[in-house]
């Protein structure tokens, strides 16, 4: 069941692209640049999703976090509340249509509308030779990583239109540009998100909705543990980085979730009002363009 932890009194959303001022002056570029916005972030109780929720919330947005497990939702909500972030939490498996619909409907009911969607949910149940993958594995990976991302967008767009516009951000991966060994099906699903971004952007621009994508490199998260847990594999990846870090300044010398969260928040802000259909790679300088 959706749990709402703040009052419903939110500021009215302006038409996308317009400059908005309050008594203290323009909010653009300030820590309140997303005040009055409502943001759904899927798979947002850990890693990049949680970092995105934090970044959006720190800029004034009311964030709706979700996970398949209630205990994870409760933990994330408590953390965000301790940081004075407006937050609502619910369980949601984006692979299930009834969960997607409930997430969107309850967000509108409790928070008044939707301005931002960060589609972060992804699965990778397979690690090995791509020729050993099965039809069932492909179905699961594509259903969650690609189809659910589109269907969530389809659900939120009418609510964004009512608010005068909005922003959608898909979380892809460096693997979407350069498939990683043993992660073939997952890599293909992330490449599909690059195409989905380009396909949706011109159509939704007519409704003042921007669609962009972020492609992280090797980031220290539980989801990517298989990549950085093996020192030999990690060393090979680190050879490809232009930005060299010591483990003393960054865990294992790779990227941090907060560095992706900040880019996502930028793409949802007025500072990115002239950006749509783009993918920003956040990889430490790894060569990863198609």
Automatic annotation (TrEMBL):
Upper taxonomic lineage: Eukaryota, Metazoa, Chordata, Craniata, Vertebrata
GO MF term set: carbonyl reductase (NADPH) activity
Organism: Oncorhynchus tshawytscha (Chinook salmon)
Protein name: Dehydrogenase/reductase (SDR family) member 4
Keywords: Oxidoreductase
Record InterPro entries: NAD(P)-bd_dom_sf, Sc_DH/Rdtase_CS, SDR_fam
Coiled coil ranges: none
Family to which the UniProt record says this protein belongs: Belongs to the short-chain dehydrogenases/reductases (SDR) family.
UniProt-listed PANTHER family: DEHYDROGENASE/REDUCTASE (SDR FAMILY) MEMBER 4 (PTHR43943), DEHYDROGENASE_REDUCTASE 4 (PTHR43943:SF2)
